[in-house]
TrEMBL record:
This is tetraacyldisaccharide 4'-kinase. HAMAP family: LpxK. One of its GO terms (biological process) is lipid A biosynthetic process. GO terms for molecular function: ATP binding; lipid-A 4'-kinase activity. Its EC number is 2.7.1.130. Pathway: Glycolipid biosynthesis; lipid IV(A) biosynthesis; lipid IV(A) from (3R)-3-hydroxytetradecanoyl-[acyl-carrier-protein] and UDP-N-acetyl-alpha-D-glucosamine: step 6/6.
């Protein structure tokens, strides 16, 4: 399965299909047929929702969706965390809804990051049903401007109270194509490093929907914007505005903050620990390139890499492969190299990574930052969220 995923990824992002190996070229007709069937299924499903054959559920609180049009590495989960932290900061308790794909590594990471906040987590394919269960259990308060004061006055009659347990907003993780739940705000994340590949739908290309689906978006966020040139940013903006001219556009990046060693999450190790070291980057994420580029900027002596497909679960044979690479680097440079992984890879299976001992394995921790761009700042992004979700903060009451 890992080989198939690698082949599909190489085909999807090949600059020149003619330069693909013979095996990969032989897969293109089959992938093309599958892509056409996927397109037909997608169109039919969307049409059934649009014409009311499938129900669209509405929740009694503000709902923001964070999604994308292509597979992996677009910064959805860091953006979900950013929004959840902001909601907590302004006094609104969020419920994060996730499908929990591939063992729930992203949810595990979010739980660890937001452990001291009132954030709640609902996991399941039927997110409307999961949300209803949480709202029934914890209660809710609709903090949208149109209902805030009325509910404050009639709270006892409506069985609504305002405390940290009440759910005040819902954040949908990876929900651009989750049409069964109504949302007040649709944010689409775009990976500035990889963009949309060959512009083909799955599985021939990386797209879950055609680029015209951006017309449904309320905002587009270009992620890893610090790792691409100004000219590329202009090209991306031009493409997006060619589809929806007036759409708000924001830029984000991941700022490395500190490291911790596998087996000791409480010890914050400074980033300088990687200075002049021999590093082996190991990752199974959607955008390994961005991860490696960040490490290369930290003054390491030498940086090598072992990449797996997104959400890949490490097995004993993978550990053996990594250890073989580490011994090769040790022989080449005369000192023990350091393994660096992402938090997502750590939270997928912390235990198996201990098998890399006696080589040190560090986990790189990073935080999403909103970059300044043509008048857009972190503050303007937060104001955008407030305005489009029509929120009335409890502190403003």
């Amino acid at each position: 399965m890992e080989k198939v995923r690698r082949a599909a990824n190489e085909i999807a992002y090949a600059r020149n299909p003619r330069k693909l190996c013979r095996l990969h070229r032989s897969l293109i007709p089959l992938l093309s047929i599958s892509s056409s069937l996927y397109k037909l299924s997608l169109s039919l499903r969307h049409s059934l929702y649009r014409h009311g054959f499938f129900p669209v559920h509405r929740l009694p609180v503000a709902v923001v969706s964070v999604g994308n049009l292509s597979w992996g590495g677009n910064g959805k989960t860091p953006m979900v965390e950013f929004i959840a932290r902001w909601l907590c900061h302004v006094g609104i308790s969020p419920l994060i809804l996730s499908r929990g794909y591939a063992g729930g590594d992203e949810v595990n990471m979010l739980r660890r990051h937001l452990i001291w906040t009132p954030t709640k987590f609902g996991v399941g394919a039927n997110r409307a049903a999961v949300a209803s269960q949480f709202i029934q259990r914890y209660g809710y308060v609709d903090t949208r401007e149109s209902s805030w004061y009325r509910k404050q006055q009639l709270g006892h009659e409506l069985n609504v109270s305002v405390d940290s347990e009440n759910i005040g907003a819902v954040v949908l993780d990876d929900a651009m194509q989750h049409w069964s739940l109504w949302r007040d705000l649709d944010i689409v994340m775009v990976n500035g490093l990889t963009l949309w590949g060959n512009l083909q739908l799955l599985p021939l290309g990386p797209l879950r929907e055609p680029l015209t689906a951006l017309k449904r978006a309320d905002a587009v966020v270009i992620h890893h914007a610090d790792l691409v040139s100004e000219n590329i940013l202009k090209d991306i903006e031009s493409t997006i505005r060619g589809i929806k001219e007036s759409i708000p556009l924001f830029l984000t990046k991941m700022d490395p903050t500190y490291l911790f060693e596998v087996g000791n999450t409480n010890a914050n190790i400074p980033l300088t620990a990687l200075h002049k070291a021999t590093i082996l980057c190991v990752s199974a994420i959607g955008s390994a390139e961005s991860f490696v580029k960040k490490i290369q900027k930290m003054g390491a002596r030498y940086v090598d890499r072992v990449d797996f497909s997104d959400h890949h679960a490490f097995h004993v044979k993978d550990i053996e492969l990594i250890r073989a690479k580490l011994r090769e680097l040790e022989g080449k440079f005369g000192s023990k190299p350091i393994v660096v992984i992402t938090e997502k890879d750590y939270d997928r299976d912390p235990e198996i990574l201990k098998q890399l001992y006696p080589f040190k394995t560090f986990v790189l921790c990073s935080a999403l930052m909103v970059m300044s761009y043509k008048g857009s700042t972190e503050d303007s992004f937060k104001n955008f969220l407030k305005d489009h979700l029509r929120l009335k903060f409890p502190a403003e009451n």
